[in-house]
Queue: 4 jobs
Job 1
Amino acid sequence: MRQLGSGGQGSVYLAKGPNGESVAVKVLHGRLVGGPGQRERFLREAEMARRVRPFATARILDAGVVDDLVYIVTEYVPGPSLAKLVYEQGPRNGDSLTRLAIGTIAALKGIHAAGIVHRDFKPANVLLGPDGPRVIDFGVAGALDRMAMASADNLRGTLPYMSPEQISGERVGPASDIFSWASTMLYGATGRDAFEGGSLPQVHRMLVSHHPDLSVLPPALRGAVERCLAKDPRHRPTAAEVMMAITS
């Protein structure tokens, strides 16, 4: 096994599956998963995530516990994350950004149809594979989110890509992912976080009051992204409605 990377949730390794195919194995930090009850909950969440249709997502192949190590195995997607690609090559524009938007919102549509809320949709969780964008970590973020009460000390997610309700510690649903998707599309178009801030209070103020400039977006995306960034989750469209708006 070769380590691909590590982060706040755990470490990711490249390995071979039973059929010789390449797979990604994420081993979670023990502090995140806690005791036996929480681990069982995680495995139930991971099993739910396996029901997500594989279009534009990295399929979840397995999850389990070995010697107190909790792991999740997914399809390996050879390609950089959107975060890395934009950092190295610059923002996306025109047709490439529209294709990115269609693929990722289709992934969210499938994730939500399976009864899952991603809770950590961001540029680092969008991989650009040879056959198009793939959304990852939807089976991990949701499970971990249910293991902790939302507070300033243990918020689950990535601050600039949270929704206003998520950063406020309120209950989040599919509409929260829609807000995070729109923020991610803006990052893809500009190379900058739409809601920047050096601290939790600063980001909180930006998320609940700032309205970013959307003029950089292609016309086909601008209206949809604007609705997705509504501060009130009740005013945001569903993933299916966004896809229809973009493709019609």
Job 2
Amino acid sequence: MIRIVALTPAGKQLAERLQAEWPEANKFEVRVDYKPKPFAESVQSAFQNGDWLMFICATGIVMRTLAPVIQDKYQDPPVLVLDEEGKFVIPLLSGHEGGANEWGAQVANRLGAQLVMTTAKPYLNPIYTLGMGCERHCPLAFLESLMLEALAQKGLTPSDIHSLNSIDIKADETHLIALAEKYNWNFNTYSAQELVPMEALLSTKSDYIYNTVGVYGVAESAALLAAQNETGIDPELVLNKIKNAKATVAVARGFVET
């Protein structure tokens, strides 16, 4: 569940706007909590329950309230703080590991707000790229369902994605091309030689894939290289590769200045 906590009338208005516009509302219940009572107990309970929390109030209030229940960045749910005018979005807790940085970037983009990311790369906007590998003549349904699952895991939508990417032996893969066309993405392919420099950033390495195509992982390598090409800086994996019976997909990210 996503909980948007507001303490002022202006904050409540912003919260209701976000609730109405949030594209993932069909996957996550989005609830507005206006002046919840008792405040500390309600917020702490939601935090311990693993709810994603968005506060429209002062940062100090949030920190004082959550301090008794904070554990670590690997267990705590993501927490954002916004000002009531919706000008600034701060990923406060579980920025990278918990997904608050990506979530904050999405909220900032929809509001036209400034993302204040204090963990790393402040004042930059993310560029998300998809990498996919698949069996020859993989049906579109396998590709699309896996892609949508990957995006849902990170709270992303197809409109957040810049491009679809793979290895050059898939340049004529009919349904990869069809998937890119359906969502208006560029479809890029790269040679094994071009993908090799991404090896150090891979989450896992498959000797089987290496012996077959010359790189240790197609989906992650292609996503990473595309993000690097688009931003000119070192990329990072947002989602390590996941797979179904016929395909693999990974999500990478780079940053550009606003």
Job 3
Amino acid sequence: MTAFILEWIARGGYWGIFALMALENIVPPIPSEVIMGLGGMAVARGHMQLGWLIAAGTAGTVAGNYFWYAVGRRFGYLGLRPFIDRWGRWLTLEWEDVERITRFFHDRGGWVVFVFRFMPTFRTMVSLPAGMSAMPRWKFLLWTAAGSAIWNSVLAAAGLILDRRFQELDRYVGPVAVALTVGIVGFYIYRVMTWRPRARRG
């Protein structure tokens, strides 16, 4: 994976960073930690400037997250009801859960979007309910950009400091990402097997 990302960065420069970070937020298995870390290595070697690297990475992050926000906004939470009624068993959701999530985002959505920028997997997933709850577009973009800029700066700085040793870190990032994915899938299977509609609980 490192070789693939390095090739994109070498060929596309800042546009390559933008494209990779946008894709990372649409298809989460591509780790932003490696993308921005390798970008930091490029800064250390004089191939990029730190400010432009962070700007390109943050713009890509916002673009990728806006994709899922737009999907949620397009269908809205009311448009989701037929889907929930039919497939809620496999999502372990009932309509009351969707309404509660929507109310939560109306009240506290801004800081949730900001905080989730620092969490693997959730930083992408949070964009969908933000769109479904019709969070104001400016607010979503502002909080997404703010959280992403901080997180991307940390990752780029780590790559800048570690430089050549970053590839050693990549050996650990891959297994950790796989472990997190397996954990999420395992939790989902457990939820599906133990979930019961409210009418059948108690």
Job 4
Amino acid sequence: MIDSFRLTEAAARKYQRHSVPAMFGPLAEKTVDLLRLKPDMHVLDVACGTGALTRAILKALKGRCRILGTDLNQTMIDVAREMTPDSPHNVDWLAADVTDLPLKDSGFDLACIQQGLQFFPDKPAALHEIHRVLRSDGRLCLTCWKEISPFNDSLATALEHHINPQAAEKARAPFSYRDGHVIQALLGENGFAVKRHAAIVLHRRFADLGEQILALPIEKDLRDAGEEKTRLVIDTTSKLLAPYDTDGVFIVPQEAHFFEARCR
């Protein structure tokens, strides 16, 4: 199952080029605004991708801090290392499975998971491992999408109509774990006490809808289906998103849960 989450170098670079500026970069900045970072912290960024949240944290940290970004994909780690400027802080990167981190116990003050929890096949094992590497008073910050984005829902509808249900399921997959009560219960069952639960609202811009659709994991499904069906998917998605059209640019809301929890 884990192999299905491994990405090629091309996929990692496409993620950085399209998804980070459109969504994960702005989400990282809003997350950092809520984090209440302290000087001289040791921070672990889990499922860091190409490092959007790591870089946002580096900008905000004071003092002499240590931050480690870890991801299952070595390709993501390689791009993250390239994209991160020199810093006075101690910054490092590690490709590792979240359920088996090669890290010592109690080494971090704060762990963050930005839009990764929903993709962990064994969520309790991942949270137990994160709890292990946090100090006794350590904090966990995580974000998960709160609602299915109108963009993804429109795209999934178009894929169901023109491609197949499996492709539509991929479009909705990032929103598969969005019940706030379920997430809070999961944290409570695995060593964390939730101290704060808030919402983060983004407004995602689609200036070139077709290009951004083809930057998603459903690209292969579209390529296999051919140019005509790909065009139909893009056109149908565009029609469904008409209420969000502002002078030729689709501006679509996307809402996320923000949880802050402490070890107990």
